[in-house]
Amino acid sequence: MPTITRRLTLRASLALVALALPLAGFAPLATAQTGTSRIVVGFPPGGSADVIARLLADTLRETGLGTVMVDNKPGAAGRLAINAVRTAKPDGQTLLLVPSGPMVIFPHVFKKLDYDPVKDFAPVSLLARFNFGVVSGPATGAGTIAELMAKARAKPDTATYGTPGQGTAPHFLGVMLEQAMGVPFLHVPFQGGAPANTALVGGHVGYKIDVVSESAELHRQGKVKVIAVTGPERDPQVPEVPTLKEQGVPLEITAWFALYAPAGTPPEVLGRIEKATQAAVRSPALREKLQKLGYQPVGSTGTELAAAQKADLARWERPIKTTGVQLD
C-alpha cells in the first residue's frame, strides 16, 4: 500500500477510522451524477488506501456525485480490484483508488500482467503524494547521509537495509540510492514494515527504507533515526529531517494515490468526476485530514495524472531491471 529527478512509489500503512467530512464552500455540481457510485480498493478495511477512499467518498457526496460507496476487494497485491474496475461498465459509476505501485512498478516486475495500466484505465486525478524515509538503526548510528556513505565504505557488511519485501518500492529505492551514492547496499526483505522495524531496532539490519509514517514514531522516541526523506521538500511528520537533495544526493522520490475510471468512460462523465474530485481534495477539511495522515494533497487533473504516471513508468524501468527481479 504506491511521485523529480527520480520518483518511486509504495504503500503507507495506517490504521485509522474514516470520519465523515462536512465540506464547506462548495456547491454541488450543476449536473450531479445519479445513482450509487463505488470506489473499489484492492486492500482490506483499515489500511491507508481504504482510509483515503472513505474520506474521499464522504467528501465526494458533497461535491455532486451523489451516493459514493467504498468496495474493498483485497487480494493479489491489489490486482483483483484493478481487474474488477477494468471490466466494469464505463459509465462513471465504478472507480478505482490505487497506489502508484500497481500502475508504474508492476508492469516492470511481473512477467505476465493481466491488465494494461495505461490502455485499460482513464485517469481522473492524482489525489496525494507521500514520502519515503532512509532510517538508521542502532547497529550503525549514522545520523546523516554523509555518515551512512562513510560507514558503508569502511564496513560494507553494515550497509544492510530492510524493506517491507522484495519487489516493493523501498527495495528499488535502495537500488537507486546505491547507484546515486556509489556505495554498496545489501537488501534484506521482510514480510512487511513491522518486522523490518523490529529488525532495525534490534540491530539486525543497519538501515531501513520505507514510508516515513512507518518510522516517524520510533524516530520521535529515539529508537531509530530518520536521516533523510525522499521528496522535494521536508516531510511535516519529521520536519527536522533534511531531504536527500539537501544532503547532496540528486534524487527525489515520492509515491502517490490516484483515482481512475475504466477506459472508454465518456469524456463528459470523466470531466464531471474530475471536477468533483478536485473540489473534494482541495477542500480545507479533506486537506487537513490527509496532511495529518502524512500525505501531501494534490487533486490534479486527469491529464496531469497521466503525465505523472508516464514519467514514473519510465523512471522505474532501469532500477528494476538492475535487480533482475521478476515475479510470476
UniProtKB/TrEMBL annotation:
Family annotation (SUPFAM superfamilies): Periplasmic binding protein-like II
User: Would I find Signal among this entry's keywords?
Assistant: yes
InterPro entries membership: BUG, Bug_dom1, TAT_signal
Q: Which residues form the signal peptide?
A: 1-32
Protein keywords: Signal
The UniProt entry's sequence similarity note says: Belongs to the UPF0065 (bug) family.
Give the protein's recorded name. Tripartite tricarboxylate transporter substrate-binding protein
